[in-house]
Design goal:
- It holds the Pfam family SBBP.
- With 457 residues, the chain is mainly beta.
- The protein has two domains: 45 residues, no CATH class; 407 residues, TolB, C-terminal domain (Neuraminidase, 6 Propeller).
- Helices cover 7% and strands 46% of the residues.
- The protein is globular.
């Protein structure tokens, strides 16, 4: 084959590749559902199962599935892939309950965690106890566990490993395991599938500390994140509020801990709300920061996303700023290595703001490039607190609205769940003719000093 026709073959293959390559993807709202009572109803977390069902949890001050037991009740709702609400379970006592975390185990169980001001399973230990409850995918309560001290205790997150162990994290104002360090300590606890507590770990400084996010990877490593008002790592905390990320093994041994403000050498306040991991062992954090972090700040809180490797090394950071502030609340990854964060923005992130604050969902690639952002809002206040992604390119967010996003507003704040998917444009037809290809190659033969990649330009 002559050099001329060899080049022709290369160009032909290149054109076929470019013509078949998608230009970009854009998000489409598949459906949005809204429900509530005359009182305040809010969803704080979401999880999906292998069948495409979504589970959301939070609290209600009305009757979603049963008469209200106290000030507020925890709830758990299941939706199928088409947006039909399959069932709702309500959990409460006379003291008031809230659920902040939800997780599925892949074998037919759903777990929620939160706090109670009463007695769900045994006597109340103190001012408020952390709770963990296990349900079937049909909404049947299997068991509830109450974890408390003489002071206030709250679980903010729950996660399940591959063999059925369950982990919760949050904060305590007293002592679970070891001496109480300060005003409020973060804690991490492990349970077996039957609800037996295996171990508890406490993490704190002399200031306020709390775990807000939790994830367990395929190797059984546990990641917890949140905020600290002190120094959890060697050195001095030079910000009023700092985000932390800690890694534990399955036996509760702490492998490492990082403080984000110390890593990026900033004096601005940082808070981390969510954590997840990918198939390569990398870890992602989202939350909000009070100033410049990875780009210009709008002068108020900005949402952020950070990527760490399995050893706790910070790989990159990204910042999302809106006119009146933005906060990252939930983070999730899909099977292709993309990362999604959800939260609330008071201003324009991508497109005009609809109201006082909007829900937002942003997609990033593995390198930290923002691919797109969707804002979803009413004329009132809207807040996206949780996000979950399945392996079919679907992303689910949940939160609450004081307006109308998927139906008429029932009262105060209503619960919202939405399903978003990426759409890929059809491959564009190639407009280059054979004559154009020949002319292109002929130009490349006119000079022997041109680089070999000139034909690609």
């Amino acid at each position: 084959m002559s050099n001329f026709w060899r080049k022709a073959a290369i160009v032909a293959v290149l054109i076929r590749f470019l013509a078949a390559t998608p230009v970009s993807a854009s998000p489409v709202l598949e459906w949005s559902r809204q429900f509530g009572t005359a009182g305040e109803d809010r969803a704080y977390a979401i999880a999906t199962d292998l069948l495409g069902n979504a589970y959301i949890t939070g609290d209600t001050r009305g009757s979603l599935a049963a008469p209200l037991s106290g000030i507020s009740d925890a709830f758990l709702s299941k939706f199928d892939a088409s947006g039909n609400r399959v069932w709702t379970a309500q959990l409460g006592s006379t003291g008031g309950e809230r659920s902040y975390g939800v997780a599925t185990d892949g074998v037919g169980s759903v777990y929620i965690s939160g706090a109670t001001g009463g007695s769900l399973n045994g006597p109340q230990a103190g001012f408020g106890d952390a709770i963990l409850s296990r349900y079937t995918t049909d909404g049947v309560l299997l068991w509830s566990r109450q974890l408390g001290t003489a002071s206030a205790d709250v679980s903010n997150a729950v996660a399940v490993d591959g063999i059925g162990n369950v982990f919760i994290s949050g904060y305590t104002e007293d002592t679970f395991n070891g001496p109480h360090v300060g005003l409020q300590d973060a804690f991490l606890a492990k349970y077996d599938v039957a609800g037996n507590r295996i171990w508890t770990r406490q993490l704190g400084t002399k200031q306020l500390d709390s775990s807000l996010g939790l994830a367990v990877d395929g190797l059984g490593n546990v990641y917890t994140t949140g905020f600290t008002g002190g120094d959890l790592v060697n050195g001095t905390n030079h910000v009023e509020l700092d985000a932390f990320l800690a890694k534990y093994d399955a036996d509760g041994n702490r492998l490492w801990i990082k403080q984000l403000g110390q890593l990026v050498d900033t004096t601005t306040a940082i808070r981390s709300n969510g954590v997840t991991y990918d198939n390569l062992g990398n870890v992602y954090l989202t939350g909000f920061v009070g100033g410049e972090f990875a780009g210009p700040s709008a002068g108020v809180d900005s949402a952020f996303l950070c990527k760490f490797d399995a050893n706790g090394n910070l790989l990159w950071k990204a910042q999302l700023a809106a006119g009146e502030g933005a906060q990252g609340q939930g983070v999730a990854t899909d099977g292709q290595g993309n990362v999604y964060i959800s939260g609330a923005a008071s201003g324009d992130l991508q497109g005009p703001s609809a109201g006082l604050s909007d829900m937002f969902l942003s997609k990033f690639d593995q390198a930290g490039n923002r691919l797109w952002t969707m804002q979803l809002g009413s004329a009132e206040t809207d807040f996206a607190s949780g996000v979950s992604a399945d392996f079919q390119g679907n992303v689910y967010i949940t939160g609450f609205t004081s307006g109308s996003l998927g139906g008429a507003n029932a009262g105060d704040d209503d619960i919202v769940i939405a399903k978003i998917r990426d759409t890929v444009p059809e491959p564009s037809a190639c407009s280059l003719s054979v004559a154009a290809i020949v002319a292109l190659i002929s130009r490349s033969r006119r000079s022997s000093v041109r680089k070999r990649d000139d034909v690609l330009r």
